[in-house]
From TrEMBL:
SUPFAM superfamilies given in the database record: Family A G protein-coupled receptor-like
Organism phylogeny: Eukaryota, Fungi, Dikarya, Ascomycota, Pezizomycotina
Family under the similarity heading: Belongs to the archaeal/bacterial/fungal opsin family.
Annotated protein name in UniProt: Opsin-1
InterPro entries documented for this protein: Arc/bac/fun_rhodopsins, Rhodopsin_retinal_BS
UniProt membrane topology term: Multi-pass membrane protein
Keywords, alphabetical: Chromophore, Membrane, Photoreceptor protein, Receptor, Retinal protein, Sensory transduction, Transmembrane, Transmembrane helix
Tagged with keyword Zinc: no
PROSITE patterns the UniProt entry points to: BACTERIAL_OPSIN_RET
PANTHER family the UniProt entry points to: BACTERIORHODOPSIN _OPSIN, NOPA (EUROFUNG) (PTHR28286:SF2), PTHR28286
Length: 293
């Protein structure tokens, strides 16, 4: 913006007034989408909990994990829809003026960081479900879960980085490498272990793991276009992530639960403390007055 003013007999002197900060944030459509997904996740959580009522506690592990996955996501969506759990990542943009010095204004994009908290908690649960389904050992499960956490946290750090800098895209590269590490564990270890199982179970695990791999790859692409390059609006980003979250959590949970009912041998029976709590022999006895220490 250019203005002019005079000093006595001197001609008008042009003055450059910097542009105000521009804010890229969710509009009514984006907020409404957040509320819709919150309701869907609550309904999914209630449905998964109801499905577990006629299942013995020792065989509820998939029901409990899927319920926790959608419940955590519902809490995150409530935080975002109610106007909390967000911050702004501001970058300075130059405005060029003919025959006048450049001015700068801030472009601030809303970052809904609650979704990264959601992913950091729920994506490892999904990995855990897949590995239990395939019967993969605990060592490889732990490595995949940690890699999954790195993938999500690196994406969060990158979301608050400056555009067109090595820092921002360096974090994105770390996130992509961690994703490939997770997929390698799922593909290699899952195939190796699954080859010893029933043919139907092996095919089902292959379908579930391929589905998750594709969905998570789309997450990375959407992140690169939206939070990374800032080529989409915040509303578009919210809507796409909403669809992906429903597919990767609610729909995946439905698929896994009904598949595990069909192939009952894929659901491990967990006894001990998980099903019965501490037994009498495991309780701590406190000495009474007069008893021997």
């Amino acid at each position: 913006m250019i203005a002019s003013h005079t000093h006595g007999g001197v001609g008008p002197i042009p003055t450059v007034i910097p542009e105000p900060a521009h804010y890229q944030e969710a509009s009514h459509d984006g907020v409404r989408t957040l509320w819709v997904v919150f309701v869907l996740m609550v309904l999914a959580s209630a449905g998964f909990a109801l499905l577990s009522w006629n299942i013995p506690v020792s065989r509820r592990i998939f029901h409990i994990i899927t319920t926790l996955t959608t419940l955590i996501s519902a809490i995150a969506y409530f935080a975002m829809a109610s106007g909390h759990a967000s911050a702004y990542n501001c970058t300075s943009k130059a405005d060029h003026h003919k025959h006048l010095p450049d001015t700068y204004h801030d472009v601030c994009r809303q970052v809904l960081w609650a979704r990264y908290v959601d992913w950091a908690l729920t994506f490892p649960l999904i990995i855990f479900e897949l590995f239990i389904f395939a019967g993969i050992d605990g060592a490889h499960t732990l490595l995949a879960v940690v890699a999954n956490l790195i993938m999500v946290l690196a994406g969060l750090f990158s979301a608050f980085g400056h555009v067109h800098t090595a820092q921002k895209w360096g974090w994105f590269a770390i996130s992509a490498i961690a994703y490939l590490f997770v997929i390698w564990h799922v593909a290699v270890q899952g195939t190796r272990v699954g080859s010893n199982r029933d043919n139907g179970v092996t095919k089902l695990f292959g379908s579930l793991s391929a589905y998750v791999a594709v969905i998570w790859a789309i997450y990375l692409v959407v992140w690169g276009v939206s939070a990374g390059a800032k080529k989409t609006s915040v509303d578009t980003e919210i809507i796409i992530y909403a669809v992906l979250d429903v597919l990767s959590k609610a729909f995946f949970g439905v698929w896994l639960l009904f598949a595990s009912r069909k192939h009952r041998d894929t659901t491990p029976e967990v006894g001990g403390y998980w099903s019965h709590g501490f037994g009498g022999e495991g309780r701590i006895r406190l000495a009474q007055n007069g008893d021997d220490a």
